[in-house]
Amino acid sequence: MSTSIRKDWDTYFMDIAFMAATRSQCPRRHVGAVLVQGKKLLGSAYNGAPMGVPDCSEAGCMLVEEFEVKQVDGQEQMVRKERCIRTIHAEQNLLLFTDRKDREGSTVYVTDQPCWTCANMLANSGITEIVYLRTYPKDSDKVVNLMQHKGITFRQLESYQPPAGIAEASPK
User: Fold this and answer.
1) Where are the beta strands (DSSP E) in the chain?
2) Of the listed 68, 91, 104, 158, which one is catalytic?
3) What is the pTM of this model?
4) Which of 100-104, 118-122, 141-145, 167-171 is the least confident region?
């Protein structure tokens, strides 16, 4: 008889978020999110084009050019970036496909730290905790401040290891 170590709840639900991310067809990043009330899974989502619309793997990324001021070696520099606007973020899909009553007091597990727009939406959704693995440095300080202001627990699972073969399949 083999004995295996039972996963803790954080690992279990983050594993499910990473599994949801495998549904994404985004060539840039696969993101998954799950909604949990207590120990009950209430919904899952991933990033992708709206239902019935060709996704990035079929129609290509819909890129827009943006400019951002960054500090580089103590000097401000204008940096050009491209951002895909075809994709609905995993957190947005999660909110679209779950009920407000289910979100009240719930936790969202998401593979990546939410961007500013998703953080705003989550802050207004009724959830009380966000758990993530990978950071999103661009919006991190603003998002952390927002969560503190709202009283939403916001934590990174730094010691978490995604299931073998799943995180490696997600573009960086």
Assistant:
1) 32-37, 40-46, 63-72, 75-84, 107-112, 129-134, 153-156
2) 91
3) 0.88
4) 167-171
In this structure, the chain runs to a length of 172
Residue 91 tokens read as 């957190």
Check: CB of residue 165 under 8 Å from CB of residue 17: no
CB contact at 8 A, 160 and 10: yes
N- to C-terminal Cα separation, the chain? 40
Known catalytic residue at 168: no
CA pair distance 160, 28, nearest whole angstrom: 22
How far is residue 42's CA from residue 98's CA, in Å, rounded to a whole number?
Answer: 8
Instruction: Give the SS3 label for residue 161.
Output: coil
Write out the two tokens for 140.
């991190």
Residue type, position 166, single letter: I
Bridge partners for 132 per DSSP: 110, 156
